[in-house]
Amino acid sequence: MNDKYPSREVAEELLREAESCNPGPWGAHSRVVAMCAEKIAKACPGMNPEKAYVVGLLHDIGRKFGVKHFGHIYDGYTYMDAMGYGAAARICLSHSFCIQRIDDYIGNFDVTKEQQEVVEDALYSLTFDDYDLLIQLCDSIGAAEGIVSMEERMGDVKRRYGSYPQDKWDRNLELRSIFEQKSGRDLYDILKSE
Fold first, then answer.
1. Three-class DSSP category at 110
2. pLDDT-based confidence at residue 159 (cuts at 50, 70, 90)
């Protein structure tokens, strides 16, 4: 998988086009995730805020292809990969798995066995990097309405799907701690800054 990703302008156009195919709050959520990722990356030495923004913006791009659960991971991964954007494809794949296990997916497995195997093979071949972890973190604090507390967002997912694995909950809190250490700042202080 290459490390390419589109420009900010191309990514924003891809998201607008995707929203026209499948309107919904996921587009606003993607913009919040992108904004959070950019701000946190700016605060962390060695991270590229532009890359963080773009891959955050495109993490749910698979939703372009309809209302799906696990299917949006496969669709986003294969769509971005086919466009030659390996860095974006990788995030489409990794964002739902802060614990690098397929069985921890919260939602319906609405893919074929072959599609699930594509996701599994690609996911298990990854060694998560800072961008994988960053988008996982931002996905856990970015709601369509804006930034929310991690506990509020995880609680919302738990209410909608009936469960939220404790180790996944704990891992999200650990991700917060990782980026607070990298930046030397409180996560929500970073997000309040301009």
1. coil
2. confident
- Which amino acid is located at 191 in the chain? L
Cα angle 138-124-97, degrees, rounded to a multiple of 5: 25
Q: Has this prediction a pTM greater than 0.90? A: yes
- Tens digits of residue pLDDT in 55-78: 999 999 999 999 999 999 999 999
DSSP 44: S
Residue 140 CB contacts under 8 Å (≥ 6 apart), including other chains: 98, 150, 153, 154, 172, 175
Considering only CA atoms, give the Rg of the chain. 15
Fold of 8-101+109-192: Hypothetical protein af1432 (1.10.3210)
Q: Which of 25, 3, 29, 37 has the alpha carbon at shortest distance from 137?
A: 37
Which parts of the chain fold into alpha helices (H)? 8-21, 26-43, 49-57, 71-82, 86-94, 113-124, 130-139, 150-161, 166-183, 187-192
Q: Tokens for 106?
A: 């919260």
